[in-house]
Specification:
The protein has about 475 residues and is an alpha/beta fold. It has a single domain, classed as Amidase signature (AS) enzymes (Alpha-Beta Complex). The chain is about 45% helix and about 15% strand. It has an eleven-stranded mixed beta sheet with strand order 1-3-2-6-8-7-12-13-11-9-10, sandwiched between helices. Strand 12 and strand 13 form a beta hairpin. Helix 8 packs antiparallel against helix 17 and helix 11 packs across helix 13.
Length: about 475
């Protein structure tokens, strides 16, 4: 029964628990067993809460939408009494003190958290290879990166440790690892799942969104509905509507394959978008090649300027002793980002803020004409572990990261929802994701489209071949 349980998505798991066909203890023990067997090869989970999770399961859980569902938290979110390292050697002794409202919402519906997943230091990298915990490896091929910064969560779901895991997205950090690992990843509309965090400039709302990486689209819809209830009160069965309401209208879909920086794109990423366009046309949608409605290179530069300045602004508000520790012990990548942000002039910061604001307006206008934007997820397919290691020469690493992160930052700037949908596998056996975005608050439209794609071209039955090899 263990294998059957871990093969189920969250919706099916909760149904079994509510009906009494499986107990929370059985479900959690199944997840912990697979974690123990599979995690050593991929290093997705860096903190396991076995005793606490089993005790919670034995005590009984709320019979809600996530009854008995085992979940994992990315180690960028607080949880009382557990390690809160944020991928940094500076915080190895830090424990969480507060129950995050998002976590509380999931627990109130019966979810059981069994541990924390790996993340790059402070979530600042497009791969998950912190010096504190080592790299998370792609379950499809262990020599490859799992993406970042929610790479631990993506790898855990792909390896079937849990059906869904928490993630956060400040520039593609849910969507990119989802594409790398062949799972579904939605970045909700800004502010949908979390309260806006303080920004260094009041004109820039937070560019980080909280949600999950999941095996199926309906699991993502379910988690979004639960978060909606916590943030805005009862939503009248939104999860059920998203799971059952078919997409009944023809969409106008703009296809853009030019990276923001104007540089080269891997053939595999381009081929994935072209195959997706063929599928979408067969489903009755209009797909047309299009150009960016923004000054793409300027927006790309503004995003990375914002990234660096955000690090500087955040660290600059820490106590002096913590700033000194950062300067002495943070990873070279984190330190260099702070230095780059500190070197920005006030005029440069103002220009960056205005560029982001302008792009936000232009993208909303764009979606008055186009229902959905379809692009590749990233410019590079199949990064090797170590290719973006945080202790590489900064100028080299900066160039590599900036080349790879070439599509997803737009929706973090604009606040619009976006998702990575598994759209097939390469001849070499690696998964390929395609990126879709819509206008603000059109999360439901994206979920409906994803459900339609999932029905036409299912992916959840595909498992990394490494899972079938003898386990240690």
């Amino acid at each position: 029964m263990t294998t059957d349980l871990v093969a189920l998505d969250a919706v099916a798991t909760a149904q079994l628990v509510r009906s009494g066909q499986a107990s929370p203890v059985e479900v959690v023990q199944a997840a912990l067993t697979r974690l123990q067997q599979r995690n050593p090869a991929i290093n997705a989970v860096i903190d396991v809460w076995a005793d606490e999770a089993l005790a919670q399961a034995r005590a009984g859980v709320p019979q809600g939408l996530l009854a008995g569902v085992p979940m994992l938290l990315k180690d960028t979110i607080d949880h009382p009494g557990h390690r809160y390292a944020m991928g940094s050697r500076l915080r190895l002794g830090t424990s969480g003190r507060h129950l995050d409202p998002w976590v509380a919402a999931m627990r109130a519906e019966g979810a059981i958290f069994i541990g924390k997943t790996n993340t790059p230091e402070f979530g600042l990298m497009d791969v998950t290879e912190p010096l504190a915990f080592g790299p998370t490896r792609n379950p499809w091929r262990h020599s490859l990166a799992s993406g970042g910064s929610s790479g631990g969560s993506a790898a855990a779901v792909a390896a079937r440790l849990v059906p869904l895991a928490h993630g956060s997205d400040g520039g593609g950090s849910i969507r990119y690892p989802a594409a790398c690992c062949g799972v579904f990843g939605l970045k909700p509309t800004r502010g949908r799942t979390t309260m806006p965090a303080p920004a260094f400039d009041a004109r820039l709302a937070t560019h980080v969104s909280t949600h999950v990486l999941s095996l199926t689209v309906r699991d993502s819809a379910l988690a979004l509905a639960v978060a909606d209830c916590a943030m805005r009160g009862p939503v009248g069965g939104a999860a059920q509507r998203w799971m059952q309401a078919p997409l009944t209208r023809r969409l106008r879909i703009a296809q853009i394959t030019q990276p923001l920086h104007g540089g080269p794109l891997d053939d595999a990423a381009l081929a994935a978008v072209q195959r997706a366009a063929t599928l979408l046309r067969s489903l009755g949608h209009e797909v047309q090649p299009c150009a960016w409605p923004i000054d793409a290179p300027a927006v790309h530069t503004a995003f990375f300027d914002r990234w660096a300045y955000s690090v500087f602004a955040e660290v600059n508000h820490w106590p002096e002793a913590e700033q000194a520790r950062f300067e002495q012990g943070a990873e070279p990548w984190s330190q260099a980002l702070r230095q780059e942000g500190a070197a920005m002039s006030s005029e440069g910061v103002e220009a960056m803020v205005l560029q982001c604001q302008q792009a936000s307006v232009q993208m909303e206008r764009f979606h008055r004409q186009w229902d959905v934007l379809m692009t590749p997820v990233a410019a590079v397919h199949g990064l090797a572990v170590g290719q973006h290691a945080p202790d590489l020469d900064y100028s080299t690493l900066r160039q590599r990261v900036q080349h790879n992160v070439a599509f997803t930052p737009v929706q973090n700037i604009s606040g619009q929802p976006a998702m990575s949908v598994p759209m097939g596998w390469c001849p070499d056996g690696l998964p390929l994701g395609v990126h879709f975005a819509a206008g603000a608050h059109q999360d439901e439209l994206l979920l409906q489209l994803a459900c339609q794609i999932e029905a036409a071209q299912p992916w959840a039955h595909r498992r990394p071949t490494t899972l079938d090899q003898p386990l240690p």
